[in-house]
């Protein structure tokens, strides 16, 4: 099942962080909310993507690589449109 994600990429399009949900859209089930903020040279993207089980660092690195390829393939609009 696809999950809403907010993704931070660096200036070369490499994924450097992800957050479940879209931080600027409050969840009806969330008690505490937070939002990622892109730093200089970084970009925020809103997307939906299948999140696999992430048990090891290698799983996370592979997930970030595939997610980055997904964003590049769709010509990701940082605002998620």
Please characterize this protein's 3D structure.
- There is one protein chain.
- With 81 residues, this protein is α+β, with helices and mostly antiparallel strands.
- It has one domain.
- It contains one helix and three strands.
- Strands 2-1-3 form a three-stranded antiparallel beta sheet.
- Strand 1 and strand 2 form a beta hairpin.
- The two termini are 20 Å apart.
Mean pLDDT across the residues is 84
Helical run tally: 1
Shape: globular
Gyration radius from CA atoms, angstroms: 12 Å
Keywords:
81 residues, alpha+beta, 3-stranded antiparallel β-sheet, 3 strands, 27% strand
Helix-strand layout with pairing:
Blueprint: E1 2-9, E2 15-20, E3 43-50, H1 57-73
Antiparallel strand pairs: 1-2, 1-3
Can you give me a brief rundown of this structure?
The protein has 81 residues and is an alpha+beta fold. It is 21% helix and 27% strand. It has 1 helix and 3 strands.
